[in-house]
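Q&A log
Question type: sequence-to-structure
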Amino acid sequence: MCAHSWHARSYRDVRYLNNWLQKGFAVAASDYQGIGVPGFNPQFNNCSNAYTMLDITRAALGHFKGLNNQVVLVGQSQGGSAVVAAGGYAPQYAPDLKVRAIVGTGIVYTSPNQPPRAPNPERDNIADPTIAYNFYHVLAAQALDPSLDPARIYTERALPLLEQARTSCLAELSADVAGVGLTRANTYKPGYEEVLAKATQRYGDDVQRTFPTVKLKIPLFIGVGEKDALLAPGKLLAQDACAAGSTVEIHVYEEKDHSGAVNQSLQHSLPFVRKALAGEVIAPICIP
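Response status: OK
Response body:
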């Protein structure tokens, strides 16, 4: 019931995608593996999500003969991870696709250079919408490793919402997170990230938040809100990708949270894409 093919799009996404449509783009979007059918959704399985995205693009080009094979990969949050991964897999998995640009907002990224997360009392004590996403990630990890004990990750205040996540779609779960007043400080137990990492690491990088490469042949746009809990990972991705030789343009949007940067980013992402499609040189912005 949470699959995009069954579930109406949010007003945020309607506005965002209509901007692309009005500029002459076609939009192809696929359900991810495990959404809308029995079984769990392998949240943040970047290989699965990337292949799904590339496959739906092939299907669209094959079915609608009037489309131009000039592809822009666009995604938000988990979708932001999917487009970066798809950009890395595309040259080998889908060499028939002419992928010209990648646009990711609120990208979920774990850097090999990432320092341990330091407590941030100001940010850790305000409502964080990314907590809702993390419930799904834990359920996916538990499906891979049934011995994973959620009580080692979540406080008693947050645990009931993990069960709610088994049957709730994101909008409803996010509303529940806000209603219960969950923050990072009152949701997670100390050391939870290490517990979660151990539950997935023996299954390989593709079930974690890693990418096949950050050395991309395709220019990458990164948009992130100043108040997004994923601001630091977004900056690290820009720095890592730039260091690897990728062409990157990152923008940080003042006063915007995880969701708010999506439509705000169009002021920069649309010109970025036009340059990429025209083959123009894109001046890298590696540090916002």
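Response note: The longest helix spans residues 46-63.
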